[in-house]
Amino acid sequence: MNRLEREAATRRIMERTPPPVPPDLYGEVLRRGGRMLRHRRRARRLLWLLLCAAAVAFTVWAATAHPWVEPPSTTTPPIVGW
Amino acid sequence: MRDRQALQDARRAREFEAFVAGAAGRLLHAATLLTAEAPDDNPRARRLLTLALAHTYAYWDRLRGEDPYDRARQHLALRFANSAWHQYGGPLSRTRPHPRSALAALTPRERLILVLRMYEGVAEEQTAALLGMPTERVHALCDRATATLLHPPRKAAATVLGAKVAPS
After folding, report:
1. Is-above-0.90 flag for pTM?
2. Which residues neighbour B37 within 8 Å (Cβ) at sequence distance 6 or greater?
3. Predicted-complex ipTM score
4. What's the helix, strand, coil split of chain A in %, to 5?
5. Residues A10-35 as b or e (16 or more Cβ within 10 Å = b)
6. Does B20 contact A18 at a Cβ distance shorter than 8 Å?
7. Do B40 and A6 touch (CB under 8 A)?
8. Which stretches of chain B sit within 8 Å of chain A by CB?
9. How many Cβ atoms sit within 10 Å of the Cβ of residue B144?
10. Is A1 inside a domain boundary?
11. pLDDT-derived band of residue B104, with 50, 70 and 90 as boundaries?
12. Which of A11, A12, A13, A35 to mutate to test the interface with B (most CBs of B within 10 A)?
């Protein structure tokens, strides 16, 4: 028995008696798959929302605090009264 | 926005139904061979197939020209490989291969490789890449599984049966 014959015999053994496909398979698959899809969509929406909120918060903070302006010096006292 | 999503949902449902109608029988046969259950009583194979197809459905819009059958088969094989040890007839599992299954004499890994290589006709290199093992190992395992399938070892079967009967 050479390799090809052996492979053919193996295929024949495996292809005997195919199982019947249950009729409710499609509905069950749709239910589970739809749920996975909805979860993923919701998670993506939530992440985008979070990103937008962070961007807005940063902009507001930067506009009010002006972090790029040099703070007034504290070592030299202001000159007054001369 | 809503309209576009509804259209996309309808298109996906249509395409996916055609895909399932064509592929479910073959994939269920492969899954039943993997779990070594009887052809007419295969709850574990059905569960495996349902999860793989649900995954394919969820990823349908992101396949980008990839073969959905290939995707489903990959998912099925990997899910089986990751749970084979404790669920589908590994040394520690409580379930035994059903005697009416064609591949009852083989270990879960031999079944997986034999089904991928012979029943599904996946190339040796692809099988090796999918399961993360060297090509030579896949070749050797496939040869051994073929030999076991064609010439079932009578003595080994007797000792296994004896071990199962003896209380330990």
Report:
1. no
2. B43, B44, B45, B98, B101
3. 0.72
4. 65, 0, 35
5. beebbeeeebebeeebbebbbebbbe
6. no
7. no
8. 13, 16-17, 20, 24-25, 28-29, 32-33, 39-40, 42, 45-46, 49-51, 53-58, 102-103, 114-115, 118-119, 146, 149-150
9. 15
10. no
11. confident
12. A13
Tell me how far apart the alpha carbons of residues A40 and A69 are, in angstroms, rounded to a whole number. Answer: 43
The number of C-alpha atoms within 13 Å of A30 and in the hemisphere containing its C-beta is 15
Averaging pLDDT over each range in A50-59, B3-12, B24-33, B36-45, which range is the top one?
A50-59
| CATH of region B2-165 | 1.20.140.160
* B44/B35 Cα distance (integer angstroms): 7
| A57 inside domain | yes
Domain that holds residue A57: 24-64
